[in-house]
Amino acid sequence: MTTRHDHWIGGKAVEPANGVYLPTLDPTTRQPGDEAAAGSAPDVHRAVAAAAAAQPDWARRPAAERSELLHHVADAIETHAEELMDLERACTGKVPAQLRLETDMSASYFRYYAGVLRAHHGRTIDQGAGTLTYTRLEPYGVVAAITPWNLPLNQACRALAPALAVGNTVVAKPSELTPASTLRLARLATEAGLPDGVLNAVSGTGRDAGTPLAIHPAVRRVVFTGSVPVGRHLATVAADRLIPMTLELGGKSPLVVFADADLDRAVAAAVSTVAANTGQVCSATTRLLVEASVHDEVVSRVAEAVERLRPGVDFGPIITEAQFQKVLDHFAQAHAAGAVPVCGGAPYDSGPAARGLYVRPTVYAGVSPGLRIAREEIFGPVLVTMPFADEAEALALANDTEYGLVAAVWSGDAARGLRLAERIDAGQVAVNGGPLTIETPFGGFKQSGYGREKGLEALHEYAQTKTVSVSLRS
Ligand code: NAD
Q1: The domain 254-437: what is its CATH number?
Q2: Residue 133 above 80 pLDDT?
Q3: Which residue's C-alpha comes closest to atom 40 of ligand 1?
Q4: 248 given a catalytic annotation
Q5: What is the average pLDDT value for the chain, to the nearest integer?
Q6: Nearest Cα residue to atom 37 of ligand 1
Q7: Which CATH class is domain 4-249?
Q8: What residue spans define the domains of the chain?
Q9: How far is the CA of 311 from the centre of ligand 1 (A)?
Q10: How far is the CA of 226 from the centre of ligand 1 (A)?
């Protein structure tokens, strides 16, 4: 039987004003799955009104009280992890390890900002005797969080936890392709004690629910994670309304391997780029740049390992039909341009994987930097490799992209790793597998967007600083 998911507004399940529900798809079988409310302007209006009504009280509560409630939300995610993973599996086909990773991280966002909230405040500014000057971190009001389909719950929590911590209330608009986990999260948050209206979720398409949300006059800040074209559109909407926004967009990130690197670990990192969420990760390091003397060896080791990855076990399907077609179009264009993959380059045509949207893990070796597969974000299990002669060429290739989200550098020479980290235009650089976690700020340079999520930076992203200066002279 098909389950229907309603909006969650003002602490209640709310049916869509137009009575319409949109089907989701199970990409492991291409069969329709659950249905979710097709949100439109009246639903958005109702959700924003609920968020606006709840906001002053939420913001006035002591930080310790908001913190306690955010911990309760984290508890609820952990307690209901299996259910959240089931909802997410049904419309993404993600493999168990990936689901577990994303769900654990979702709870951790709430834990982290619940903790930070109690320790991180404004500051006092010394202006001499007879004065008291201090800053306060104040919320914007209602925040709109518009999120994509690739890491649905995780990306929602990445934005919601710091936004709520500061005292904003939120209307979340998940992707119409993967709405169930975010809708369920909002209900769980209410059940965990978050006051009605503090966290609302409205499902629906970008056009019918996303745009009315971004243009709503009571929305004071937008956080958007998604594609460059939609990000550009929403940036113009925000500019017109003079409201700030966070843009977390795409990437075509480099993974740079020098001959003196620990090649076992570097090869493992390249393989995990293909396997992790089937390459459908904005921060995937999909351009493998390898020093010429070890290029062929690294390529053959990576190709051998990715060919051993098992569909449905080590990696899942492409989450959407349109994205599946886009990956196949990239293969066709690469073929037309004369590029021959070392492995993959096609969907599965037999066995259980052929029933779903599974693409074979793919490596194109020694590609020309001008090819589309070398320049555009593919968002599938696809690596392109390029050899380089020296450090200068490695740097030039790493920066030869309109994106700037992430970079990884592998070298036995730590100083060289740090030199590249200094010169690569990206929001975060990992040298020799250095961890990038909730504590480390995340965001793009260039076309990968602006603003920062994660870390203390995200708390400031959702707060406006107020200065209060008092003369104590009588
Ligand atoms: P998308 O831009 O198509 O959609 C993202 C969200 O925006 C969805 O909720 C969608 O309904 C909504 N939307 C679409 N059109 C809209 C409009 N006109 N007005 C308002 N909202 C609208 O992106 P996608 O295809 O769901 O996700 C894939 C993209 O997201 C990739 O480019 C990927 O790199 C990027 N991404 C970036 C990050 C990051 O943190 N930088 C993380 C994950 C994904």
Answers
A1: 3.40.309.10
A2: yes
A3: 248
A4: yes
A5: 97
A6: 249
A7: alpha beta
A8: 4-249, 254-437
A9: 25
A10: 2
Residue 269 has pLDDT above 90, yes or no: yes
At 326-383, the pLDDT tens digits run: 999 999 999 999 999 999 999 999 999 999 999 999 999 999 999 999 999 999 999 9
pTM of the complete model beyond 0.70: yes
Q: Ligand 1: list residues with CB < 6 Å.
A: 146-150, 155, 173, 175-176, 205-207, 210-211, 214, 225-227, 230, 233-234, 248-251, 282, 377, 379, 405, 449
Closest listed residue to residue 145, CA positions, set 160, 166, 135, 132: 160
Catalytic residue among 88, 102, 248, 461: 248
Q: How confident is the model at residue 2 (pLDDT cuts 50, 70, 90)?
A: confident
